[in-house]
Model the fold of this input.
Amino acid sequence: MLRQRIALILWLILPVSPYLRAQDTTAQDVVQMEPFNVTVYRGDIPIIDGFTGKAYTGSNEVVVQFAKTFNKLLLGYHKKLVIDEVRHLNLRYKLGKEFEREMGTLSASFGFGEFTLDDSTWLRRERAIVTRLIREPFFKVKALVVWDRDRLQKIAPKKPDSKYAADLHYDPDTGSWQRRILTRWEVFFYNNPNRTDRAFETEKIQGLNLDTQRGFHFIERGLPVQIPSSAFQEVKLTYPIFYSDHEVGEKVLRHLQETLVANLYYLYDPFSWMARRDTRFRGGYIQDCQEHVRAQRIYVEDRDAFDATLSRFLSDVVTIKLQGADEIYSLHMLQKHLGESPRTLGVGLDLLNWNKGEERDAIDRPATEARISPSHPGGFRFVMIDAYQRLGEPFLEKIRSRLREQKELRRSVNGQTLLTEIIAELSGLPYSEFAQRAKHTQEAHLARHKMK
Done:
């Protein structure tokens, strides 16, 4: 899948649209088009010999050709990053409005008040980042650092006496050298331009093994909603590559180009300040839904637990209608994966402690199978989903009628008991038996979305 994405990015390098513009969410699109002009990647990139720290004077054709295409690839990726994000923001904004409409209709069928989502803070951080990307890139690659692999092999496992050697590592298990990039993304701005004693600052430290695509990222603290695009500082780095005079040709060059794009996919993602693209704006706006349900008059004794259960269920019903149940399963497994290894960057966690004094530490628990416990709120959520999938609209209507009945009687009942009684009545099974069947079915659905 990643290789296909890399090939597509390489193919799209030149045809990328040159227009983008961040604008208010009141318009039809969150982000539209305006002149896009990034000049920093024009011209030739300097080439440094890693051993000497001076300008490369060799004539290896792969090195020369890769250097000629480096800025074009970087600029192409930069543009595609912005365009993909623009499409993502527009899609998620429209999906949010669809969710608001569908949730409003469902809520009204229960006799609840009007449902609205507070979109005043939607996408503000993202639009600030898009605006910054349109004006100038985050990355400034100062130079291409080239290493003669044959020469490195002769001195292995000893590192060269060079300031650039800190980004090299000899792996005795494979008998090969590996490269890394460490970056520091800094954010700084004054909360009040007239008060220099009140400022916000944070940073994101990340690193990636350029040969295995395994790495780490640490975010000191997240971004505030009101962040100006000028707050993001430039990220400076050098990019190392290996070459050999015994390995030349188009295939070798293509491998270097594809590897660069693969590395950029993980390294160059400024939107990960909030969350990764595959997690942002997903989950059904559960906080808004819970606040809405909490504001209604419902005659159950266990309001806190019931409000959480009902609001989550209604949100899931809308999500299933708009996106299908797989959206719920895939997001659940993705969040589970990130919870098990929250500092991971790339395809796996690598803290890259390659030099003396580097002692980074982070959680990295092996991925486990998804397990559902119907007696706990998280597990009961999937029992409710299973009941809805099997019983459909009659299940929803039964919940509505029972809640209306209790309201008319002005008599409170236990909400959890009410729901389990409805499931047993409509399914024709004792609740405990239905819950056990639901557990196995829903665990099988989740297993299909386990992160590799």
User: Anything to note?
Assistant: The CA atoms of residues 188 and 378 lie 39 Å apart. The chain is about 45% helix and 15% strand. The beta strands are 19-22, 31-35, 47-49, 139-148, 168-171, 176-192, 195-209, 214-219, 235-243, 344-346.
